[in-house]
Amino acid sequence: MAGGVTVKDVNPHEFVKAYANHLKKAGKLEIPKWVDIVKTAAVARHIYLRSGVGVGALRKLHGGRKRRGTRPSHHAKSSGSIARKVLQALEKINVLEKDSRGGRKITQDGQRDLDRIALMCLK
Q1: Residue-wise pLDDT tens for the chain (123 aa)?
Q2: In principle, which of 4, 10, 31, 99 could form an S-S bond with 35, CB 3.0–4.6 Å?
Q3: Range of the domain at 24
Q4: CA–CA distance from 69 to each of 65, 74, 77, 120 (Å)?
Q5: How far, in Å, CA of 23 to CA of 2, rounded?
């Protein structure tokens, strides 16, 4: 690779948009219409940076504020179904694999693709 550019070296917003475009153009990813491809790209980037992430961690990451009326708001986890199906779709196209210690991790092919797209974002 030219200079060893990785996902960590580029702007996250630009990378997620570029990887989402790559996934759309490739057409290999079969996910339900209600799952946003941008969320899939964000999940791939997150697992690249922190391997061993599972459905529970993604639920916590994508969750938000639960408004409880007059009582103080608290954090609520997001749906596990969406996170699980995104992980399964990325596994099917060989970007992720199951980690022996739990959760998922990036495959060598997946890391190569993500680094290649990061290099394109840097240019």
Answers
A1: 456 888 888 888 888 888 888 888 877 776 666 666 678 888 999 999 998 999 999 999 989 999 999 999 999 998 898 889 889 989 999 999 999 999 999 999 999 999 999 988 887
A2: 31
A3: 7-122
A4: 12, 11, 18, 47
A5: 23
In the chain, the number of structural domains is 1
| C-alpha distance from residue 101 to each of 53, 82, 92, 117, 120 (Å) | 10, 22, 20, 28, 32
Asked if residue 28 is part of any domain, the answer here is yes
Q: Tell me the C-alpha distance between 29 and 25, whole Å.
A: 10
pTM for the complete prediction? 0.77
Return the residue matching tokens 């199951």: 98
**76 touches 64 (CB < 8 A):** yes
Domain harbouring 117, CATH code? 1.10.10.10
